[in-house]
Amino acid sequence: MSENKLDVFQIEKRYVHKDGHIFWVRITSSVVRDVDGKPKYVVAMTENIDEKKRKTEELRESEARFRSMFDNAAVGVAVMTLDRHITQINQTAERMTGYSQEEITEIDPTMLVVEEDRFFDRHLFIELVEGKRDQYTVEKRYTRKSGDLFWGRVNFSSVHDTDGSRSTLSA
Fold it and tell me: Which of 89, 101, 103, 142 has the maximal Cβ count within 10 Å?
């Protein structure tokens, strides 16, 4: 074996504190070898990762709740970029429009609106994108993939990133 070679082992484990609560740690163990490559001693480092594990679990649960609400909402929900590019829709929106998730991401959503209704809320949308408002509601006529018309009440809302900046819109 080569000089100064370290064999490293890492594991995450739960332990029981003397007061009874369970907590997570990450243990990193390294074998230090002598010049002949023989193990000389082991260095172990223990890191408390309980808070990180808790936050990861809270995030996973929050994402699962959001996914469930999004997927099972009785109303159509769409997520779009600030320049009106649809990135995601739920199953109700798929049923309402007749377009699949994959199809609708390739469509300019303004083209789904009946021409006479297409731009009467333009100033409201611009105010939303510019941050002058957080949401607005509008009723318009839309065209399904089949060509049939339907009325829709759409609530456009800005979605903020963790730093407070606007990144997407929901409709």
Answer: 89
**H-helix segments, the chain:** 50-72, 91-97, 101-104, 122-130
Question: Both 103 and 157 in a single domain?
Answer: yes
165: domain CATH number?
3.30.450.20
What's the pLDDT at 166?
64
The secondary structure of 36-84 as a DSSP string is TS-EEEEEEEEEE-HHHHHHHHHHHHHHHHHHHHHHH-SS--EEEETTS
96 is in which domain, residue-wise? Answer: 74-170
Asked if residue 84 is part of any domain, the answer here is: yes
Neighbours of 151 (CB within 10 A): 10
Res 54: pLDDT: 94
- The model scores a pTM over 0.85: no
